[in-house]
Amino acid sequence: MPTAPTYQELILRLQNFWAERGCVLQQPYDIEVGAGTMAPETFLRVLGPKPYKVAYVQPSRRPADGRYGDNPNRLYKHMQLQVILKPPPDNVQELYLESLAAIGIDLRKHDIKFEEDNWEAPTLAAWGVGWQVMLDGLEITQFTYFQQCGGIDLDPICAELTYGLERIAAFLQDVDSIYDIVWARDPQSASPVKYRDVRYQDELQLSVYNFEKADVEKTWKHLEMYEGESQALINQFNALMADKNAGAAERERFPLLAAYELCLKCSHLFNLLDARGAISVTERVGVIARIRQLAVGLAKAYVAQQNVTVETAQQQKGGAA
Amino acid sequence: MPDFLLEIGTDEIPARMIQEASQELQKRVEELLGKNSLPYKEIKRAETPRRLVLIASGIPATQPDVQEQLTGPATKVAYKDGQPTPAAHAFAKKAGVDVSKLQTITTPKGEYLTATVTNKGKPAAQVLAELLPKEIASIYWPKNMYWRAGKPERFVRPVRWIVAMLDGEVIPLEFAGIKAGNQSRGHRILGPEQVSIAAPGQYVEVMQAAHVTASTADREYKIRKALDAATRTVPGARWREDAGLLKTVVNLTEWPSAILGNFDKQYLSLPEEVLVTVMRDHQKYFAVEDASGKLAPHFLAVLNTDGDPDGLIRHGNERVLRARFNDARFFWDTDQKTPLVNRVEMLKVVTFQKDLGSYAAKAERTGTLSEKLCSMLGKAGLKVDANAVRQASQLAKTDLTTELVKEFTELQGVVGGLYAKAQGLPQSVADAIYDQYKPESTEDSSPRTLEGAVLSIADKADSIAGMFALGLVPSGSKDPFALRRQANGMVKTIVEHKLALNLGQIMEDAREGFKGSDAEKKFTLRGEAYVQGVRNFFRERLEFYLRDVLGLAYDVVNATLAVGADDVVDAVARAGAVAKVRPSADFESISVAFKRMKNILRQAAETKKKVAEPFSPAALKDEEEEKLAETVPGVAKRVKELSASRQYEPALIEISRLRPAIDAFFDKVMVMVEDEELRAQRLGLLQTLVKEFSSIADFSEIVTERK
Lengths: 321, 707
Description:
A: about 325 residues; 9 helices; B: four-stranded antiparallel beta sheet
């Protein structure tokens, strides 16, 4: 039996596979997100008509899921390999199955099922239909035909494949604890570096911070400040769009991407406060609505800005002809 | 007579949607064929996660020709001086016949030109190609999606291929940009990828060779066999029948097989409820029990592949289950560190409903309402442990804060009960918490204990009261908070525990619980509107119970509920008695008579006739009416006595005994006589009869053959 891939080999193989099929390999987004969907490479790129294919690993932080490194199956920060295919090719499911073969899974020897699982993210005003892909009873991938994002109907839609990397690695290496996954193996000595060696401290200390130490009052303040700045930028952009005297260049260079980063900050801080048990019933509904409002406002603004770019390009083309 | 095949190939359709969609497609195609003069000998359907299939045999290759008579212009316009005018020529052209072949027809409006034309039947393939796409597009899906750019159509999942054939010929239809052909696809992994279909009649066989068992019934049979075989490897073991799970796995597979896996005996120390939920709801495994019916450390997984010769699949599934069980045990142990009593405070941050506030507030209201219910039951002589109910109400929702319930939400209540027991709370408290959501359907049992029944009723009444007051009233198919199910549960529990509770009172008390709360400011149904709304709602639920659960006739139900629907136990007893005596000739006759009495009294009221109340027996004249008047007080007294102890059947038989007297009265006595005083007395007699004998049921609601 061939040795199972290490964690990093698993990532490399999946990345190679999708690179060979035309995906841009992006790097993980450098702001805290709860899921790969929230990285702008998904949330913003799925909007509008422009085709796009991208794959990237996204460390995803969910403060409430932390277990101080004690639980063999749960992490505060897990990693997803996110693939966006916009529009999805007709053989997208077959491609996905090929990717499993590429990481060493002989499908003839395993049981694979596509079981209904529709994805929805209320804070992003986003949803899609799809499946959880089950391999021998293990959910290894969330497969979604993305339908709406930021409250905007997508056209074309896209396929979003989210591989749960730790689960797949544990399956391939046949270990019962995530922490026992071999992350890398020294080519000379063959001595392993395990997931525990790389990530345990992170899980333990961030669990302590998220559950015990995060300063509630300051975190609330941070949330409000980020929210205020994000909203202010959205408002400025909308004013710019309404201003008949504003030029295309001025609109195109407006930092909506920064406003989106600020929105992501809010989302993470909200999760942190939630883990800290600092959000009351009434507050909870309200804060979710506020973040959703930012996300929806940004999605709309982003589409408007993209249209400015398209119009500019058309005018230039028209001028040349 | 050719055979017809339609196969719509898709990405995996959600298991819960396959059967209904397939049935709908069959119905649509049957109607289409019927409407278009394309009769079929037999139509069969098949369906798997990746395909909806219809096979109809013996369809005519073309529609029959149809003769149609067209009416043209009036003869006097069509001919001038015996020569056809342009109008006649135009008509002939339209009808496609020579002018000389035109005939005339005489109608009441005069003489007109007419022509008989033969509409040639179209080839069946053409009809189907034209009409099928619309039927495919119209299939209802609970959730569907777009997939093509420009969003031209929606379907449950992308359509990938279509096979449409009449015998060996492809029907040239197109749906969602897919042109139909004769190429199907085999099993995703076991293949082959492409499968040529030579003729519709061969479909099932050809697909079987391609590792697709197209028929649902065949797959179910195969799965049962496979489960039996796998279970036989453990002596004395049985797999637990589970109709819902079986249906799911049948709809998740194209080529099913089954394996038996094992788990460590140590996990059997976790409650069976938890283990079974993990296996069934999360892993879709069947549980296995030993000869004594106890859970055994095995499970059965249904695969969508040929088998597992290397044991790899079993190994993988065992690994997943082990992790799940470990999680459950981890949650169980963690949860024990914070006993339920210490979780009451935590409920303040758990939302019950956004306008109704937290579960802490709900627990408080439920507690108060439970106390009222206990005192009502106490007054009726039922022994309820009010302390246990109070404690259970307070703790009932605390399990929502536990890790185990966060992970396995379907175990809410059950987990609370198990924890209460593990934490040394009295059995009666634990049982009440455990059963609080029962009954969850009409088939489910009601709570086992009286304390559980009270908690269950109070919890549901509180939810219904709050939602109704907010105006979130169920309508049509919309009932997002499952209020109907909850009300059905209340009715069932009251009946099965024979609780002396009044629905109107319960709901009034439940509404009281919100008094002065923030929630109350958002209420839209107030005062009489609330009372009336809740009353109608519960009357419908009680009707549902009597008709659909107890199987009583609708007129019996109407007759019973017409005189009262608040006391559920009493209503059930009355309805049961009415249903029993209803077939007797005497009762039928009494029902007819009551209808007649009510009509007479209604007419009298409408024409403002005087009614003597009470009537005076001495003022009556005829023998028959005197006899009737004499009989009434004695019968009325016995009916009252019997009713007081809910002996409704003998009471009704007692009423039936009035029949000869009533029949004789109506035979011989005329009520609406000219003599005003006599008429008033006779009306008074009828009024008394109706009043005295309508406490069990309104007999005039009974549907009778005679009028």
